[in-house]
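<tokenise_the_fold>
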Amino acid sequence: MEKAVSIVKDFKEQCETPLGKLREVADAMNFEMHAGLDSEAASSMLKMLITYVHKLPTGDEKGLFYALDLGGTNIRALRVHLGGKEKGIVRIESEKVSIPPHLMTSSSNELFDFIATSLAKFVSSEPQEFHPPHGRQRELGFTFSFPVRQTSIVSGTLIKWTKSFDIEDLVGEDVVRKLTKSMAKIGLNMRVAALVNDTVGTLARARFSNHDVIVGVVFGTGTNAAYVEHAHAIPKWHGLVPKSGEMVINTEWGDFCSIHLPLTEYDQALDAESINPGEQIFEKVISGMYLGDIVRRALLKMAEEANFFGDTIPPKLAIPFILKAYEMAAMNHDTSSDLKVVGNRLRDIFEIHNTSLIVRKIVVELCDIVVIRAARLAAAGIFGLLKKTGRDTVKVVEQQRPVIALDGGLFEQYPKFRTCLESTLKELLRIEAAETIVIEHSQDGSGVGAALLAASHSQYLGVEDH
């Protein structure tokens, strides 16, 4: 057990995130954001994508709008009934469909035909009273949570895949055109009114009811952030300055990397064996898809080098991604005296039976190390965003009271991640500024937010019966 304790101690030291290091991460993030805004040809690792969203929801939007959310292993269709300032969001209906694994690596036609068919099935359940007038198309907000270079609010080409997707023939293609073609093929009379990233949707969802929201961040399977930028602070923007004078920027911060990130041998091995080695490094240390696998790799080393689970190495410890973040959360928040939940998870996931209390405590400590590092680095990223917009000082925040909208399964379902992120951000901000910055949960931003953006970019705005 002494050897196992030594491995954990070394791991903890390598993952440490003192405030000084976090400030260095934030400064590096800030630098890369500036570089990414300079020009498309800039060497910045942050793409700082122009979203063409300069008209965020005001709360006045009315009517029935759809949303389609594609960002992980499921697609979700939503129907959102808006009642304007008086009634707000009247009703939300949704349906989730799992994407067959083979479609994530097949062809774009197969994937989008499947999506369009699933969407049409959901639309068919629309109540009669909400059917659009003759000749009018239904309108859809399309959340596509992968790096896209947009050319308008309703068009954008895929730059590259992340997470578990790898469909070569879609890279460089317009994702809205592909979806529109598949919808037309089955006679679904629907128009994409807004193509958005889930972080932009998160921002829009919160902005519908709070005009002080300036940042939207998602911590889920992956991670990303979007924020409201002054149009004149975007050197690569060559279009007309919007009436609002603002533009939402999709940072694609998952691709951020810095010498200041506390990376370990487990992170390096995970990256080397991933489908995108050398990319999405920030995402690989803070997002839900990867946290469990970092813990698994540490446990495997302890089993191999310290007989942590006895004389034999449990075979399931060698299976990548077998440990999910939500299972980590369950173990991390086990309050029973004998850590029964931890024991049950080790049995159910890895087929490791009859673990001692000391073994269970060490497993919890590993989960602690990984999630605390993730949360503190996530806070450093948000602090970097605030520095970029000049909202990290008390003088500015007193005037503007900026609100940061957060969403995603990791943020929602992992209390330790959430509380650690919030407390770390307050540590990074000056005390006075920390009291003024507001963190808000933007419930279902990637879905409802997309429908709201479809509403604010509707081609029927101002039409009486809309």
